[in-house]
UniProtKB/TrEMBL annotation:
It comes from the Bacteria. It comes from Pseudotamlana carrageenivorans. Residues 16-110 form the Cyclic nucleotide-binding domain. InterPro entries: cNMP-bd_dom, cNMP-bd_dom_sf, RmlC-like_jellyroll. The lineage of its organism: Bacteria, Pseudomonadati, Bacteroidota, Flavobacteriia, Flavobacteriales. Transmembrane segments: none annotated. This is Cyclic nucleotide-binding domain-containing protein.
Amino acid sequence: MVNDVLIQNIEKSIQLSKLELEQLFSYFKPKVIQKKEFLLTQGSVCKFEGFVLEGCFRVFVLDNKGNENTLYFAVKDWWLMDIDSFMNQKPSDLNIQALEDSRVLLIDRKDKLALYDSVPAVEKLFRIMSQKALVAWQRRLIRNHSLTAEERYFHFIQTYPEIASKLTDRQISSYLGITHEFLSKIKKKHFKNQ
């Protein structure tokens, strides 16, 4: 069942009654996104918070030279959005693109605020999720400042093998903040030493 993935995600943080879950589900709209399709483009306002039911997305920014810099990937059981654009209703700096055919549940800002009123425990859920996201960002910043590119690469593929298996080397190098050529050297060196 579609909602089972979301229920399992929610129950990692809080417990909701059957009635509260039904109310919560009534605010989310399912959407199918085709491979390479954009859920959000840079310059538009992010009008949703999304939960990935299946598939894979990349969240990235294009710099003024046209280089893609990937902030994160989102797969099944992950949330995705541009929080700054969503909360402040300002143009987004981010792009969100499906890397494969995907399905998501979306909630808009108005419905999210109404959900807080109808199921107050959900506000606690999103607070916990925000704290977990902040911890993840902090850990990534620490890794980016304290680990070599090679160490960051091996950390990524060991921590997120299900994501890494879906990505091209260009997408991984964009996430790691290195060139595709440098990633190729890292991989070549690793396979030579085995």
